[in-house]
Every structure is written in C-alpha cells, then in structure tokens.
Predict the structure.
Amino acid sequence: MTKNSPRRNTTWRLILALVFSLTLALTPSLAEARAGGSFGGSFSGMGSRGARSFENNGASPLSRSMTNVAPSPSSSMGGSFFSRHPFLTGLMGGFLGSMLFGGGFFGHMFGGFFMLLIIGGLIFLVLRMLSGGVMAMAGGAPRSLGAAAVPQQQPFRGRDVYVGDADLNAFQSLHAAIQEAWGRADLAQLRQYLTPEMLSYFSEELTKNSSQGVQNLVSNVSLVKADLTESWEEGDMEYATARMRWTALDYTVRIGSPPSSPGALVAGDPRVPTEAEEVWTFVRRRGGHWLLSAIQQV
C-alpha cells in the first residue's frame, strides 16, 4: 500500500488540477462588486507598487499597471498545466469561441464534437503523464528529486524601512489635494501629486468624462482613518502603502449644468456623503516629495 501511495497522490493531483483548470476556463468572470470608486472606478487597481506590484496585500490586484510581471519561482518548473501545453490551450480557446459565438444547430453540433475531442485528448494526456510518472519512479526516486533539493531563490521585494508621522501627514495632505484637483478636472494641479503613469490614467478618465459631457465632482472630503500597512525601499526609491477611509460628496453632473437644475444629476447625491475605502501607494526618490503611484479598491 505504501509503494502505490505516491502514484495515487499524483493521480489525484492531476485530476484536481484538470478540473480546476476547466472550471476556471468555463466559468465567466465576476464583475467588480463595487460600483464606481475614486477617479472613475474603471479598474479595481491601477498603478505601480514597484517590486511588490503583484503581491497580495489584502486589496484588489493591480489590473492595470506598467510594471512588468516578474516570473514566479514555479516558472522554472514548467509553469501551469495549460501553459505547458499551448496546443491544448488553443484548442480550448477555439472550442469556447465556437460555443459562445457559434449559433444554431451546426454551432451546437460542432461544439459537441469538439467537446468530445477535448475530453478524449485530456484523458490521453493524463494517461501519458501518469505513465511518465510511473516510469520515472521505476528507479526508486522521482526525476524531480534533484531539482527539489535545490533551494529556490526568493523574488526581490525591496527592503522594509520606517516612515514616520510626518510622512503619514504628507499622505493625508496628498489625499485631500488629489481629491480636490480631481473634482475640478485640473490636470495641471494633479501633475504635482502623481507619478507619470498615474497621471496618464487620470487623464484618460477625465477625457472619457468630457467626451460624454459629464464631470465627477468630489467635495467635503473628510478622512476618517489612514493606516500605514507597509513601507520599503528599492535602491534610492522609497515606497509606502496606506489604507485610506474617508467620506465625501461624490456625484456626477452634466457639464455646464448646475447640479440643482432638472436632468443635471447623472449619478450620486450632492447632499448625502458617501464612504469609500481604498489602498493608496506613494513613492518618492529618497529626500524628495511623495507622489501617488497606485490605487487599489478594497
């Protein structure tokens, strides 16, 4: 019984990985639960957090960032199931496309035919992988034993540093100034507070609003709480992330129309404050001024 247990474990791992991959591919993605958000709310997270851009920090991941995705340690082991089998990935994509966009009797007929092909191919692939695992263990040790014995190098994530109360006060002042400049659609003022990447995203959102003839107004901003969650340095660059919670009058009106005029209000309420919570990351060159480099929804 003991001799067969590694094979059974491998079998179950492969089956579970296969089911998970198919579920992930066939399940539609969920829309962002929170409607709106600061500065247009088109993305759950945008900007850069340096070497920690794609770490899980308890907030929504950066769905829009100019930071290159660093290869994970697992990439040297061949990557995920589908990344190691690109033909199978392409076949699955073609099958999903035929199911989603192919209509009528023939669409369903060919969809069913491709489904049978995919299921047969997956079963064949699993059997091949199982037989390969058994062959590798024939000598009494798995092929990956030598590779597993090599310690994996941890990805660079900067060095933790301390930022004081003066920095936290600077973050709070930046938060208020950015909100105020956004409400006025003042890109010239925003340029003083944002990294070039964030300025490009803000500019894009303001352009979208202008093209639709609307303006998002934010006023009476009151910061309820600001907690520093992490701070680190990368070379001569310093980063700090804070969880910000505030209330504000946040509403959207048609450009050129007083908020009180009929039909001027597009969204929100100019009389009832709303509460928001986001994770903001700031960056500066050592000795310089802090700039906003990323926003993540909570």
